[in-house]
Specification:
By secondary structure, this protein is α/β, with parallel strands linked by helices. It contains 15 helices and 12 strands. The strands form 3 sheets. Strands 1, 2, 5, 6 and 7 form a 5-stranded mixed β-sheet that branches. The chain has a 5-stranded mixed β-sheet with strand order 10-9-8-11-12, sandwiched between helices. Strands 3-4 form a two-stranded antiparallel ribbon. α7 packs antiparallel against α10, α11 packs antiparallel against α12 and α11 runs antiparallel to α13.
Length: about 425
């Protein structure tokens, strides 16, 4: 009698134990927790899940409920149980459809990649948006390749559902993803500040691929009315051919960057005959207002010699250019910029003449900045973040990996439509 009582009490505890895990996991009819196995040596917890005998299951490929044909045992990695890895071992049914086909019924908690639950995949996605793949792999106890596979799968699913019908302004830029001449082109929604397209190369074909991508996602190339690009002839040609209604804007900061390069070239040439210019490189390249007092004093002393120092004249030309491009009246900017080019071409500051020629060749796009104020600055900041991550993370030299990372950190993709836990 005591043995029966002990057995009943132990059986009752087991049922309560299983019900507790059912509640924690959200397992409901017809599924139930059949048992729990804790392996202290391997530090793993395996929860065995089954379904009630005689259950019929729905399947998206055929209406109604269908009888179970046979079963397969599937194992899913779940969120850790404290410090222990947790797995769900599920007896998964295969049902027979009216047309005779036998198909697998995935339980509601099954992830988008074989072997994981939705909750585990949501955790990996959240971590990978903040950490390199290798660090996430160490944290969750999975391989680098599995972690990347989860992210890549969600990126592709989210991109397939992307709706670009409201997109009108693009910012297009390039970045390297491997040593040598390996580049990719990325395009971003300039208003939403999110990456919408990434492809290999930095030629006109990259813009053609972008136009095709728009057509595949409820948009058309004709709806793009503004495109901010650098002065790459390939990009200019691609936009003219594939985005016919886009007004091209050349980012002011690209123009100033060319002027800064000209200042530095002038300094290096003049420094060969004038040792007093040594040590002034950063004072000339940085914003004067951000210089420490001693460097500001050295810069001011140089500028005071503008009549005799070509480097000083180059610096003044750049600052004049910056002031012109900060103005907002397009007619005023056009007139002042044309006069600036004339003044520079009459000077003897040869490197700055190259900038004047560049501006004349791209005049309309540079002046367009006055009205659009459209910039690629946030994309360039993104490039900086990515290059920093690439230096400390394995696998970022592959295009596929870089594309995945760019969308993870700057795509603003809606993963919640795919996985409700990934909001």
């Amino acid at each position: 009698m005591r043995q029966d009582a002990a057995f009943s009490l132990g059986d009752s505890y087991a049922i309560m134990h299983n019900q507790l895990f059912e509640a924690a996991l959200g397992v409901s009819d017809p599924w139930f927790v059949q048992g729990v196995d804790f392996d202290a040596t391997r530090k793993t917890l395996t929860i065995v899940i089954d379904f009630a005998a005689g259950t019929r299951f729905a399947h998206p490929e055929a209406a109604g409920l269908h009888p179970v044909h046979d079963t397969q045992v599937k194992r899913y990695r779940h969120l850790n149980f404290f410090q222990h890895e947790c797995y769900l071992e599920v007896r998964t049914p295969r049902v027979k459809l009216p047309d005779g086909r036998v198909v697998l019924v995935e339980p509601a908690w099954a992830g988008k990649l074989a072997g994981f639950t939705l909750l585990f995949e949501a955790l990996v996605l959240a971590l990978c948006q903040q950490m390199p793949f290798a660090a996430v792999a160490r944290t969750v106890g999975e391989s680098w390749h599995r972690v990347h596979a989860i992210c890549s799968r969600y990126i592709e699913l989210a991109l397939a559902q992307a709706d670009l019908s409201a997109l009108t302004a693009l910012a297009i830029d390039e970045t390297s993803y491997r040593r040598g001449h390996n580049y990719l082109t990325l395009a971003a929604d300039a208003e939403e500040r999110k990456v919408v397209f990434v492809t290999e190369g930095r030629d006109a074909q990259a813009i053609a691929s972008l136009a095709e991508h728009l057509a595949e996602h409820q948009a058309s190339p004709e709806q793009i009315d503004s495109a901010s690009i650098d002065m790459s002839p390939a990009f200019i040609k691609g936009v003219a051919e594939r985005l016919p209604n886009a007004r091209v804007t050349f980012d002011k900061f690209h123009v100033i960057a060319h002027a800064s390069t000209a200042v530095d070239k002038t300094r290096r040439v003049e420094q060969k005959t004038d040792p007093s210019l040594k040590g002034l490189r950063w004072a000339l390249l940085k914003d004067r207002s951000r210089l420490p007092a001693n460097q500001r004093a050295d810069l001011d002393a140089l500028v005071a010699q503008v009549t005799t120092k070509r480097t000083a004249r180059a610096w003044l030309y750049r600052e004049q250019l910056r002031e012109i491009l900060d103005r907002k009246q397009i007619n005023v900017v056009s007139a002042m910029l044309a006069q600036w080019c004339t003044n520079v071409m009459r000077s003897k500051v040869e490197p700055m003449k190259e900038v004047a020629k560049l501006i004349r060749n791209h005049f309309e796009g540079i002046v367009a900045w006055t009205q659009t104020r459209q910039t690629n600055g946030f994309i360039e900041a993104l490039n900086g973040l990515f290059q920093a991550a690439k230096r400390k993370a394995r696998g970022y030299t592959r295009f596929e990996t870089m594309r995945t990372v760019l969308f993870l950190i700057a795509g603003k993709l809606d993963f919640a439509r795919i996985n409700p836990h990934a909001a």
